[in-house]
UniProtKB/TrEMBL annotation:
SUPFAM superfamilies tied to this protein: Chaperone J-domain
Alphabetical list of Gene3D superfamilies matching this protein: DnaJ domain
All copies of domain J, residue ranges: 54-118
Low complexity bias locations: 1-21
Protein source organism: Amanita thiersii Skay4041
Residue stretches of biased makeup (Basic residues): 222-234
Pfam families named in the record: DnaJ (PF00226)
Region entry Disordered, spans: 1-26, 215-234
Record-given protein name: J domain-containing protein
Lineage: superkingdom: Eukaryota
SMART domains cross-referenced by the UniProt entry: DnaJ
């Protein structure tokens, strides 16, 4: 008597295989979503920690980037950390910082000012290393430094940008102070004119009273002169 091992129906085997494959795909999607969410939060933290006065730092892009590169990088990051997609509580703040950085780098005048400051920082760093100011970033002499050249340049740029921002704020403060003094002066002039106008009005309103008083005084004086006639002797 032969015993045959029962076999599973083909449909059941196919169904089980499909079920396993679906579970694996769901798990992979879940892991990808979690990884993506984590990366979004990491990017938000990077932007929040970036040096706010340097748009290149915020966008995490080099100074030689073209306007097209800047727009492309901004679009890529903005979509990645958009508050609607990123669960980070400060995603809106990071999004605004990113937008501000792109706006400043897209403004030709502002970018030229920023590049001038960074170029000045590069010159100072090269001088501190006793190297010609025309030394390119890829020069072998800039390699194997105790502190990397890019780190030195970033630190020096940060110092100069902070100094520039302090000067800007001081100038604004002085302008506001001068505007305040000018406004105060104008207010005092207006108040003086108003007082003069009120005095002139009061003077006109009291004109009849003054005239009546003078007439009364004149009449009384005339009467006294009549009563006190000098007696003639002889």
């Amino acid at each position: 008597m032969s015993t045959e091992t029962p076999t599973k129906p083909a449909a059941a085997t196919s169904k089980a295989s499909t079920s396993t494959r679906t579970t694996d795909e769901d798990l992979e999607k879940l892991l990808n979503r979690e990884a993506s969410a984590f990366q979004r939060e990491v990017e938000v933290e990077r932007i929040l920690k970036a040096f706010k006065l340097n748009p290149y730092d915020v966008l995490d892009i080099g100074e030689i980037a073209s306007p097209e590169d800047i727009k492309k990088k901004y679009k890529q990051i903005s979509l990645f950390i958009h508050p609607d997609k990123c669960p980070h509580a400060r995603a809106p703040e990071a999004f605004d910082l990113l937008k501000k950085a792109e706006s400043e780098l897209s403004d030709k005048a502002k970018r030229e000012e920023l590049d001038a400051v960074i170029n000045q920082a590069r010159i100072l760093v090269l001088k501190s290393l006793q190297l010609p100011t025309s030394t390119p970033d890829g020069d072998p002499k800039l390699k194997n430094l105790d502190l990397p050249f890019k780190a030195r340049l970033r630190t020096q740029s940060k110092e100069l940008l902070i100094e520039e921002e302090l000067r800007r704020r001081k100038a604004i403060k002085m302008n506001l102070a001068n505007e305040g003094l000018e406004a105060k002066k104008k207010d005092e002039e207006l108040a003086a004119k108003k007082r003069k106008a009120e005095d002139d009005k009061l003077w006109e309103e009291n004109r009849e009273q003054r005239v009546d008083s003078w007439r009364s005084f004149a009449n009384q004086t005339a009467k006294k002169k009549k009563k006190t006639k000098v007696a003639v002797l002889g």
